[in-house]
Amino acid sequence: MSSWIDVRKNLRSFRFAIEGIGALFRFENNAKIHLLAAVAVVLAGIGFRLNRIEWALILTQVGLVLAAEAFNTAIEKLADVVSPERHPQIKAVKDLSAAGVLLVVIIAILVGILIFGTKLFEMDFFNG
């Protein structure tokens, strides 16, 4: 029987994605650093008792950083297969991919400063 949704195929794809997440955090140093930062941010969020909107913003930023790192890693690995030797265009591709991660991280830091900085001001942290 043909179905418009092939459940087995979807489950297999989901399993491959989980394997990719495992490989990302097992083998990629930058991904480990981002994951450690994400855990720290989540713990800080618990400590500061973020509201639902703040959690939504923080978790979105965490997800974007981790996804950007995954895309960057995939692009770098593909570039290494396409051109194992040094090539200026491959360098440009890798640099642009890394720039994408950096841009997402900068925005995530700014969102974190807005949310956690506001919490610190509310606690009168900066006034002694």
- The top-level CATH class is Mainly Alpha
Structural class: mainly alpha
Query: In CATH terms, what is the architecture?
Result: Orthogonal Bundle
Secondary-structure element pattern, one letter each = HHHH
How many strand elements? Answer: 0
Radius of gyration: 19 Å
The outline comes out as globular
- DSSP summary: helix tally: 4
Provide the domain count. 1
- How would a crystallographer describe the biggest sheet? none
The separation of the N and C termini measures: 70 Å
Helix content: over 70%
**CATH structural fold name:** Helix Hairpins
Mean pLDDT across the residues is: 95
Low-confidence stretches: none
Strand content: under 5%
Protein name: Diacylglycerol kinase family protein
Keywords: ATP-binding, Cell membrane, Kinase, Lipid biosynthesis, Lipid metabolism, Magnesium, Membrane, Metal-binding, Nucleotide-binding, Phospholipid biosynthesis, Phospholipid metabolism, Transferase, Transmembrane, Transmembrane helix
Family: Belongs to the bacterial diacylglycerol kinase family.
InterPro entries: DAGK, DAGK_sf, UDPK
Can you walk me through this structure?
It is a single chain. By secondary structure, the chain is an all-alpha fold. It has one domain: Orthogonal Bundle (Helix Hairpins). It is 83% helix and 0% strand. It has four helices and no strands. The longest helix has 35 residues, at 88-122. It is globular, with a radius of gyration of 19 Å. The mean pLDDT is 95.
